[in-house]
Structure to design on (1341 residues):
């Protein structure tokens, strides 16, 4: 009977967690400082597996941090900086109160600052880790770079964000890493593949923000502080991986070209370089000036069986990717004033096209509208007065759709004043059973190399309809069989009823029909029954899980059917409208 | 010469005492140079002008000179030429000042002027009277200056004089009798009028000379008064940065230049202390390290912190679908109902946080109003949202389905409905098959017991018993042909005479060859049937005190148990011995509402199912051997395996529990196959089959192999769901029973039919 008495909550998971308030007290920080520290260090609450055990028997809602995380925060040098800052603010207030301006001056000169380099290194021990987490950083920086320079955050932050995002875009152009792009109602999504990582970011439309009141900008600013540091280091590394100069410099050739223009009246000298960079029209200077990067030949490894297939698939994919990278090569674009310049310039340059714009829109335009070699002019207005014969006038969606389809789509659907085909999300990958919009099918057909002309298309549509009908007929056949059986059963039932009611049956012999037994169907039925019976024998837990999975599947099917039905109704309505107008 | 020069410097100070001395020297000098008076005059004039102009500036300069005059004395750099020049200057200056004095003398206005313009006027006045200068030279002892002092002249505005001389006599203003008209005439006629100024001090008009006008102009322009003065003379620095061969001064250095300054030391030590104590921080050099980046991951160490092992990376934001497009396909747009639903829903319940919209062109797309909100929410998620590692169930649902032997391999079992026995007009509550398997008896609510031939579905006999038949049971002994039927509070023993004559006679013998029971037996009365009833085949009537629900035969066919469910009484079960017409109540206590009873097929055990549990009694030892917990709310029926080691119970809460008596008192398996209450269960006598009938109108046949090996659990596999009965009044199948030899099953339902499945 020896030993100490065991107490509750002194071992096990209860000792691994700490509540937020306790953590704060342990660190001796105020709540805002604690919040800032958590944001910077990437500390987040953990949900314990058994809340009651951790919460000392109570089930009250509490946020728990891992005790190890908090201990780890104890040694953070930034905490000392926070305290310094607190002291600084106090001193400054005091100096102001006493109107000691020299002291204020001196204090302001010695304002404590901190660096986040070590935190970044600690949070992302390898470069790939950092790249994996760069999505949010990019989104945030792109948002902040669109803020007006009025009060919501420091102007320096906005400028830094702008600089970093421009650097990022220039890198994506230089490495031709862009893969997908999507115009949504929120903004424009881009997806790039950098060092094997898919990175997606969202850029808002270039409008003034309606700043909401229920958003804590301090939180956002803290995040941005961290993200700018991260993005800067990532940019540095990426630029060096491509042998580009960092901070980015324009190619000497491009620079001289751009110099000719009267830039002095456009912006101040210090700003004009960033503006020129952000024009995205010129290539960047390299550390080692190679003509063009030589494409490394992929060595062929002998492989067999599945590996071979995989290899082939991979090779094919790679080839496709290479083709996509050169999608716009040899094309010369001109952007009209009303199209979003930055997005399109970025897009076109990412895929090797040349792009220019009106001189009044932005610095860095390389050729005029009058250039005869322009192949496409991107216009977003119903019509245009002066048209050149030797170029296409297209709407901006064409460029985006081409990138997603990885081929140059026929321009006819995108001419001025034409109703645009729907813009589909490239991020949706339909599995079998999912609903696929007909436009996607069309694009897939184009990708496969089929080229349906306009008229053929109509026929095809009709053909498809015919096929559909046939399919329906087949189904009908099945249905008919079912119906026959049903009818038989009905008669039988009737007879039974009559019998049960004690009426005398009409004695009548009808010629019997030979029942054709469909062996496949029988087998199927048998299988289905087997399954049904087996399901009956499932354990309760498994049954629950199984039901859940099946419910999800059924819901998916239901949704797909709903979408298909909606589409059909819409198409029918359109068709009837057309017919009416024809008549 | 030295002395004189130093004297010059001092002379500038307005010390009136020294004037006399100076005047004398001037006089001397003027006497020395009488040869060229004209030239001198001009020169003098110029210099005077210059002097006037320069006076205040010079004062300063000379103050400085005074301070380091000694140095200059010792410098030894002054060459003779510069000295002489200086001297000349000094002389000229002297002359100028003399002139001043003279003027004052002339005009008897003895105040020294500070304002330049007045001095100029004075100069003009002096010039006017220059001719007289030498005339009055004789009276040089007289103080000719205005002696009123430096007072505002307006004090004497209203007087004819402007002050007093040394003797106290008035000094009168010059007579002036000009009025406005004269002034005007003067203005019109006098060509010199524009350069005439009025001197307030003396009250006289002065006409400015050309030079003076020129001077005024120059001064107005802010230029030096002297035309020849060069403002930008090359400066000669005495103390330059170049190391010189000789010292600038000859003065021996002070002692204090060799010892450290105590004051400075004090100051420095104060600062040092302040720095030491951290009161003063050295000025931080501006580090613009923000925005200066380097290769942070240059040395990638793969050492992973302990934290990173527990690190759960934040999930990425889900990628947008077609719904979010600015120009989605039409099927992704909301219909009116969907939109209404979206608006009604709570924001957290919505499938999308936005309404899909379509724009015909890119230029029409507005800014997304909730953009900053969404980013902010993401931020909150990142630092506030608790994270937990959740294993995603990536199960193929097919894998969850247990692998059972195929029903095909477990044949034979009934699969199809082959016969329907019609004839009853009420619910058929109970059915029973004769041990030979040739006859089927059924009891119905229409008050009849019918006997059917199994193979032909012909109703061979109908016995009207005059009450709803609750239960029928065929005597399991093949050598007799007897049927027990329970209706109301009577149990009837019928001899349907549907067998060999030998069998019929033996059963008759069993019924008749008994002794009359002793009269003391209380609750039950045995009576013989008579008349019509006898003709119908009813042989015995056993009158019970309460309504009988069920009857069950012992395997030997002599004993019969009847159930009279009652909450409050211990008299719920009676066991009758038919051959001796004896009845007894085996239980002294009420253990709950009895639902069903059964005899063990081989051993002397008696199974009694109450609402929640099944009790097993040893009839020989007259004690309870086991109590099985059914884990169900209300047992409806019970069947005992022909081996006697297994029991199944159906319950009104849709369950079927299989008990393995050797295993435990808990069910070995609970089967929830039915959707509604289970009404009847049955075992097959020969085949490993059991079945359950339920209110959902189905009969489920299961395969249940029982192994002799005690270590192996029974194998239960559902093999067939049989449907056929119609559901009437929420009642489906009421009873189910197997054919004794064939894998056939009979079921009776609320639709007044009996069905045979083969």
């Amino acid at each position: 009977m020896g030993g100490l008495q065991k107490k509750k909550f002194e071992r096990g998971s209860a000792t691994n967690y700490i509540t937020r308030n306790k953590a704060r007290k342990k660190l001796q920080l105020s709540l805002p400082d604690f919040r800032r520290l958590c944001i910077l260090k990437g500390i987040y609450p953990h949900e314990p597996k058994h809340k009651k055990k951790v919460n000392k028997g109570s089930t009250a809602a509490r946020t728990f941090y891992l005790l190890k995380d908090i201990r780890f925060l104890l040694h953070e040098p930034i905490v000392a900086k926070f305290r310094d800052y607190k002291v600084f603010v106090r001193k400054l207030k005091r100096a102001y109160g006493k109107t000691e301006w020299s002291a204020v001056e001196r204090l302001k000169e010695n304002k404590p600052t901190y660096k986040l380099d070590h935190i970044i290194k600690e949070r992302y021990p390898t470069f790939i880790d950092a790249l994996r987490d760069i999505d949010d950083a990019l989104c945030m920086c792109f948002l902040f770079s669109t803020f007006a320079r009025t009060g919501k955050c420091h102007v320096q932050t906005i400028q830094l964000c702008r600089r970093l995002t421009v650097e990022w875009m220039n890198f994506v152009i230089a490495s031709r890493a862009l893969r997908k792009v999507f115009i949504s109602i929120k903004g424009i999504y881009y997806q790039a593949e950098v060092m094997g990582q898919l990175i997606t970011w969202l850029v808002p439309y270039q409008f003034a923000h309606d700043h909401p009141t229920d958003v804590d900008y301090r939180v956002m600013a803290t995040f941005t502080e961290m993200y700018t540091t991260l993005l800067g280091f990532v940019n540095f590394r990426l630029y060096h991986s491509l042998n580009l100069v960092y901070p980015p410099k324009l190619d000497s050739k491009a620079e001289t070209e751009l110099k000719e223009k009267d830039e002095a009246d456009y912006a101040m000298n210090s700003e004009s370089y960033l503006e020129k960079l952000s024009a995205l029209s010129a290539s960047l200077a390299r550390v080692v000036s190679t003509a063009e990067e030589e494409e490394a030949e992929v060595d062929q490894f002998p492989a067999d069986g599945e590996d071979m297939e995989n290899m082939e698939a991979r090779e094919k994919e790679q080839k496709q990717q290479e083709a996509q990278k050169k999608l716009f090569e040899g094309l010369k674009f001109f952007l009209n004033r009303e199209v979003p310049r930055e997005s399109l310039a970025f897009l076109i340059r990412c895929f090797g096209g040349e792009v220019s714009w009106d001189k009044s829109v932005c610095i860095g335009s390389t050729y005029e509208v009058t250039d005869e070699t322009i192949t496409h002019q991107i216009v977003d207005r119903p019509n245009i007065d002066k048209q050149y014969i030797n170029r296409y006038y297209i709407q901006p969606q064409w460029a985006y759709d081409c990138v997603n389809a990885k081929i140059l789509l026929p321009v006819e659907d995108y001419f001025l004043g034409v109703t645009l085909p729907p813009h589909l999300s490239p991020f949706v990958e339909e599995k079998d059973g999912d609903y696929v919009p007909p436009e996607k099918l069309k694009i897939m057909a184009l990708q496969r190399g089929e080229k349906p002309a306009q008229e053929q298309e109509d026929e095809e549509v009709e053909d498809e309809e015919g096929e559909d009908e046939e399919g329906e007929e087949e189904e009908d056949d099945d249905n008919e069989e079912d119906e026959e059986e049903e009818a038989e059963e009905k008669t039988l039932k009737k007879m039974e009823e009559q019998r049960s009611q004690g009426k005398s049956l009409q004695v009548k012999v009808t010629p019997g029909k030979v029942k054709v037994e469909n062996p496949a169907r029988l087998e199927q039925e048998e299988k289905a029954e087997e399954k049904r019976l087996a399901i009956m024998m499932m354990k309760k837990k498994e049954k629950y899980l199984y039901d859940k999975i099946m419910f999800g599947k059924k819901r998916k099917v239901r949704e797909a059917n709903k979408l298909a039905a909606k589409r059909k109704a819409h198409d029918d309505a359109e068709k009837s409208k057309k017919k009416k107008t024809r008549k | 010469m030295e002395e004189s020069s130093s004297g010059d410097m001092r002379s500038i100070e307005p010390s009136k005492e020294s004037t006399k001395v100076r005047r004398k020297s001037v006089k001397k000098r003027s006497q020395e140079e009488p040869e060229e008076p004209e030239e001198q005059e001009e020169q003098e004039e110029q210099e005077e002008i210059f002097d006037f102009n320069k006076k205040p500036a010079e004062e300063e300069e000379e103050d400085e000179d005074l301070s380091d005059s000694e140095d200059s004395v010792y410098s030894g750099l002054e060459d003779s030429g510069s000295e002489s020049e200086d001297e000349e200057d000094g002389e000229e200056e002297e002359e100028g000042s003399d002139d001043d004095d003279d003027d004052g003398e002339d005009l008897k206005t003895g105040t020294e002027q500070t304002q330049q313009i007045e001095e100029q006027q004075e100069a003009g006045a002096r010039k006017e009277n220059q001719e007289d200068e030498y005339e009055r030279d004789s009276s040089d002892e007289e103080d000719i200056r205005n002696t009123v002092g430096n007072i505002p002249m307006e004090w004497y505005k209203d007087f004819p004089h402007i002050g007093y001389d040394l003797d106290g006599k008035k000094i009168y203003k010059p007579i002036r009798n000009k009025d406005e008209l004269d002034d005007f005439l003067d203005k019109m006629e006098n060509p010199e009028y524009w350069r005439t100024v009025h001197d307030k001090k003396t009250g006289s008009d002065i006409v400015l000379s050309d030079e003076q006008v020129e001077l005024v102009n120059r001064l107005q322009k802010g230029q030096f008064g002297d035309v020849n003065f060069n403002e930008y003379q090359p400066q000669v620095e005495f103390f330059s940065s170049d190391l010189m061969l000789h010292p600038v001064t000859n003065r021996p250095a002070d002692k204090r230049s060799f010892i450290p300054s105590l004051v400075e030391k004090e100051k420095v030590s104060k600062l040092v202390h302040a720095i030491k104590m951290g009161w003063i921080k050295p000025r931080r050099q501006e580090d613009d390290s923000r925005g200066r980046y380097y290769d942070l991951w240059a040395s990638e160490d793969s050492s992973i912190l302990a934290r990173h092992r527990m690190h759960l990376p934040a999930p990425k934001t889900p990628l947008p679908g077609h719904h979010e497009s600015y120009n989605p396909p039409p099927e992704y747009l909301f219909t009116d109902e969907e939109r209404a639903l979206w608006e009604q829903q709570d924001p957290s319940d919505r499938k999308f946080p936005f309404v899909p919209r379509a724009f015909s062109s890119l230029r029409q797309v507005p800014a997304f109003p909730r953009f900053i909100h969404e980013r902010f929410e993401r931020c909150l998620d990142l630092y506030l949202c608790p994270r937990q590692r959740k294993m995603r169930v990536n199960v193929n649902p097919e894998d969850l389905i247990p692998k059972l032997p195929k029903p095909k391999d477990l044949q034979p079992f009934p699969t199809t409905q082959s016969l329907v026995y019609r004839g009853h007009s009420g619910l058929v509550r109970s059915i029973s098959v004769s041990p030979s398997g040739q006859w089927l008896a059924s009891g119905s609510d229409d008050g009849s017991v019918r006997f059917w031939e199994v193979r032909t579905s012909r109703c061979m006999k109908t016995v009207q018993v005059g009450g709803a038949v609750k239960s029928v049971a065929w005597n399991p002994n093949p050598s007799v042909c007897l049927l027990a039927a329970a209706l109301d509070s009577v149990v009837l023993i019928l001899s349907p005479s549907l067998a060999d004559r030998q069998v019929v006679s033996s059963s008759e013998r069993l019924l008749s060859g008994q002794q009359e029971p002793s009269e003391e037996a209380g609750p039950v009365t045995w009576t013989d049937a008579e008349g019509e009833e006898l003709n119908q085949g009813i042989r015995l009537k056993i009158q019970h005190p309460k309504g009988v629900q069920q009857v069950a035969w012992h395997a030997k066919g002599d004993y019969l148990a009847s159930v009279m469910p009652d909450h409050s009484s211990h008299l719920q079960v009676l066991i009758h011995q038919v051959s001796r017409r004896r009845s007894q109540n085996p239980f002294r206590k009420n253990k709950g509402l009895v639902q069903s009873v059964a005899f063990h097929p081989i051993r002397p055990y008696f199974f009694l199912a109450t609402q929640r549990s099944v009790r097993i009694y040893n009839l020989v030892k007259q004690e309870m051997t086991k109590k099985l917990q059914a884990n169900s709310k209300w047992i409806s029926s019970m069947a005992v395996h022909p081996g006697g080691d297994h029991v199944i119970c159906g319950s009104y809460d849709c369950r079927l529990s299989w008990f393995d008596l050797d295993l435990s008192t808990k069910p070995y398996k609970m089967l929830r196959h039915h959707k509604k209450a289970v009404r009847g269960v049955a075992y097959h006598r020969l085949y490993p089959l059991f079945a359950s009938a339920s209110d959902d109108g189905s009969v489920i046949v299961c395969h249940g192999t029982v192994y002799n090996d005690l270590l192996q659990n029974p194998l239960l596999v559902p093999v067939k769901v049989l449907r056929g009965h119609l559901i009437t009044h929420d009642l489906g199948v009421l009873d189910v029973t197997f054919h004794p030899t064939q894998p056939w099953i009979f079921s009776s339902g609320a639709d007044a039919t009996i069905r045979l499945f083969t």
User: Anything to note?
Assistant: Residues 290-296, 453-478 of chain A have pLDDT under 50 and may be disordered.
